[in-house]
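Q: For a teaching handout, I want to show students what a protein-ligand complex looks like in C-alpha cell form. Below are the inputs, and the small molecule is flavin mononucleotide. Please produce the holo structure.
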Amino acid sequence: MRKIKNFEDLEKLRKRIMNKRNSLKQTITICNGTGCHAYGCEKVTEAFKERAKEMNLDVDIRATGCHGFCERGPILVIQPDGVFYQRVKSEDVDEILSKTIKNKEIVEHLLYEDPLTKEKIIYDDKVPFYQKQKRIIFGNNGFIDPTKIEDYIAINGYEAFKKALQMMNQDEIIEEIKKSGLRGRGGAGFLTGKKWEICKKNSNGNTKYLICNCDEGDPGAYMDRSLLEGNPHSVIEGMLIGAYAIGAKEGFIYVRHEYPLAVKNATLAIAQAKKYGFLGESIMGTGFNFDIKIVRGAGAFVSGEETALISSIEGRIGEPRQRPPYPAIKGLWGKPTNINNVETWANVPFIIINGSNWYSKIGTETSKGTKIFSLVGKINNTGLVEVPMGITLQEIIYDIGGGIPGGKKFKAVQTGGPSGGCIPSELLNLPIDFEKLTEAGSMMGSGGMIVMDENTCMVDVAKYFMNFLRDESCGKCLSCREGTQRMWEILDKITEGKGTEEDLELLEELSEIVKDASMCGLGQTAPNPVLSTLRYFREEYQAHIIDKKCPAGVCKPLIRYYIDKDICVLQGHGCGVCQRNCPEEAISGEKKVAHEIDRLKCIKCGICMEVCKFDAVYIE
Ligand SMILES: Cc1cc2nc3c(=O)[nH]c(=O)nc-3n(C[C@H](O)[C@H](O)[C@H](O)COP(=O)(O)O)c2cc1C
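A: Here is the structure, written as C-alpha cells, with flavin mononucleotide included.
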C-alpha cells in the first residue's frame, strides 16, 4: 500500500481496488452489527468462511455493518442479486452455499414472510421494512466491511473530500452546507453550515478543534453507534471536509465506552486513513493537515451535552457550563470548537458530492434530508430506519415497523430520548420534522422512538423517564437536581395510589420552573415526558388519583388479579395451571372447580395471567 500523495493517486488506488473486484461475483454480506452479534452472527460468518473454502466455492464472504432490520437478525444478503435471508444460523450455512451460491436456488425457510399477506419475499428491496425507507446515510452499511478502507474507497469513499479540496474553497463548502439546510442530528437541530461559519469566522486563523459526538446516552437509541460501527470512514470523511472548511487541524471522536465495537472500528478506520494519507500531514499533497483521536466517555447521559463533553475531553468532570460563550467561540481548551453529531458528519460527504440542491429536495420546508430513527419497544419490526423527513408516524410504525405485536392497540410513541415527549395515537398522521414534533410536545432529539401499546401506563412511563433524568442530572442547578427529584416523588406517589389533584397542579408548576431555571438542555427538557403525558393522557392520571385505578393494569398497588369463574370452569375445566405456577401458593381450587386468588398472599406477579390459556385471569 502506497500513501496517497495527490488527487491522481486516489484515482489510481480506486481503479486498482475496482480492477481486483468483480461486481458480478456473488458476495454474501452478513450483518455484523451489535444487534446481530447478540444473535450469533460471528459464528455464522466464520462457518461461511470455513465451508466456502472447504467446498472450493468462488464467493466472497463479507462481514458488514448493521442492515437495520435487527428484529430478524442475523441478516444476510447475497449480492449482486439482493437475495435476503433472515434469522440465519450456522446450521443453514451448507444449505445456502450448496443451493443458492452453487445453483441460484432459493432456501425457502430463510425468507422473510410478510405477516399480513403470508407472501415469502426473496429480494431485500421488496421487504416491506425497507420499502418506505430512504437509506442514504445508512444504506452503505450493508455493503461494506467497516474494517476495510478499500471497501469504502470502492463505493466512492473520500471522493467528496477530494472534490472539496480540489474544487471548492472554505467559504464555498460552508455555503453549500448552509444551502442544503442540514440541521444537527444530535438534538437541537441547529443549522450545521451556520455553526461552521460562526466557528470559522470567530477563530481568526488560530487553533480550533472539531468534535464528533457519539455519546448517545438515550435509552433505546443506537443509531450513532451503528453508523460509527458500520461505516466509520463516512464519519471521518465528513469531519475532514468540516475541518478543511473551518480550518481545524485536530479532531476528536467522543464515544461512550459501552460501545466497544464502535471504538474498535473507528480506531481501526483512523489508523487506516492515516496509512493511506487521508489523515495526517499535507493530505493529498495540498498542505492541509488534520488528525483525529478517539476519546472514550464514561457513559453519563449528561456528558453528551456539548459543554460537558468538552469538559470531559479536557480531563475534567463531564458537567455542563453556562452558554454563551458557545463552543464555536470558546470550546476545547478555550479555543473555538465545532461539535457535531455522528449522523450530522455522515451527511456531509453526500451533500458535497451530490450538491445542496439535491439534498434540499429531500424532506420538508424546515427539515431537510433523511433521519435515522431507532424503532424499539412494542413494535413488530425492531430496528434502525432511515426515512425522509416529513414521513408520518403511521408510515414508520405500521408500514415500516409492521405494527404492534399480538394485534394490540398502538397507544403512544415516545420520541426524542428521555426528555422527549409521548405522542398519542390521534397524532399518527403527524408528518415528522423538527417543528412538528416540538409542536406536538415532544422533540426530534437524536432519533430514539419507543413504541407503546395499550398495556402501557402513561403515568408509569413519565415516572420511568423522570427516574432516569433525576439519576442523570449532574446536580449543578438546584432546579434540575431538586426539581426532577421532586417530580419523580410526585409521580411515584400517584402510581402508588396516594396522589391528589393538587399534585397535578404542582407537577405542572414544577415543570415550568425546571424548564426555565435550568442551565443546560437536560433540565430544560426534562419535564417533557410529564407535560406531554398530562396533555394527552390526563384522564389516566385522574384514574390513578380519583378512582385509585391503573387503567393499563401496570401500577401494582392499584391493581388486583381475578379469575373469571365461568370461564375457568366452562372453558378451562378448572385446569389448575395457574395454581401450579403461582410462586406464592395464593391460588386455591379443585379440578373442575373455579379457582380463586387469595388477595393477602398475591404478590401481583402476573404469572397466573400469563399461563392461563383460557383468558380467565383478568386485572381490575
Ligand atoms: C443532556 C444532553 C445530552 C446530549 N446528548 C447528546 C448525544 O449523545 N449526542 C449528540 O450528538 N448530541 C447530544 N446532545 C446535544 C449536544 O449538546 C450538541 O447539541 C450536539 O452534539 C451538536 O451536534 P449537532 O449540531 O450535529 O446536533 C445532548 C444534549 C443534552 C442537553
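A: Two things your students might notice: The chain has a mean pLDDT of 95. The two ends are 70 Å apart (CA to CA).
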